[in-house]
Design a protein that fits this description.
Elements lengths: L23 E3 L4 E3 L28 H10 L5 H11 L2
Antiparallel strand pairs: 1-2
Length: 89
């Protein structure tokens, strides 16, 4: 339904100012597109107030280096040794 095809609001309808589908608004002279309500940002607050910690693991991941050594037929072994010695200090 276009703006021109809509009927003028009756006394009872003019109190709402919006069309039945909510897409049009009566501004006392003509039907205009309904205003878009403002979007209110949602704020999430950490109510638990539990401190979060990031745990950094140090050390050599030997399982990873073993798999890499097997997959590369031993070519990864020197890298594994260098990393293991460097992380042992």
């Amino acid at each position: 339904m276009t703006v021109n095809e809509q009927q003028l609001p009756t006394q009872q309808q003019s109190q709402s100012f919006y069309s039945a589908d909510g897409l049009w608004f009566w501004n006392s002279q003509q039907w205009v597109p309904a205003p878009i309500p403002a979007q209110v940002p949602t704020v999430v607050i950490n109510q638990a107030m539990v401190p979060s910690y990031i745990v950094a693991r140090s050390g050599t991941n030997h399982a990873f280096h073993l798999v890499m050594t097997i997959l590369t037929a031993g070519l990864w072994l020197p890298i594994w040794l260098i990393v293991a010695v460097a992380n042992s200090r």
